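The following block was generated as part of the benchmark described in Methods. Ligand: protoporphyrin IX containing FE.
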Amino acid sequence: MTPNEKNIVRATWQKIVPIADTAVDLFYDKLFEIDPELRPLFENVDMGAQKKKLLQALAMTVAQLDALEVLAPQLAELGRRHAAYGVQNEHYDSVGAALWWTLEQGLGDDWNTETAQAWTAAYTLVAETMKSAANTDGNRPSNAQRTAA
Ligand code: HEM
């Protein structure tokens, strides 16, 4: 990410913070609308707690954009846990689309080509770091294990 992209993400995140509870509700509604097949993954999940955890993860990411050496291992660990939850690579595209839509709603006039590009760069960084850690041998249950479970 360029310094300008990081600045845009930090500045626009500050505008999301006061409306974060509403934004995260909209995000999950949109996510399940885009990809209803994801619902079962959250069947036994406390969504109230989950929404807080997602916001914390995003806040951590935004706060550490200049400390990739700290951020990347945390995202890798998060990605490995997601493999265990049954999350597949393509699910990250649905999450990215729901995030994009939510930011567009939340930021209103501040959502423009430059903002969209900056957030795409940030989300790509997060998703690629999580996916590559999740896809490392040994982290994803094999199909055989999944069928057996
Ligand atoms: C790329 C950005 C993502 C971020 C920042 C993120 C963040 C988180 C966090 C912080 C948790 C709490 C549990 C933990 O820390 O391990 C969590 C749980 C979860 N996430 Fe994600 N996540 C992302 C992508 C996804 C995707 C693509 C899916 C696919 C649907 C997903 C599905 C889940 C599920 C099902 C849980 C609940 C696990 C459980 O409690 O059983 N996440 N996520």
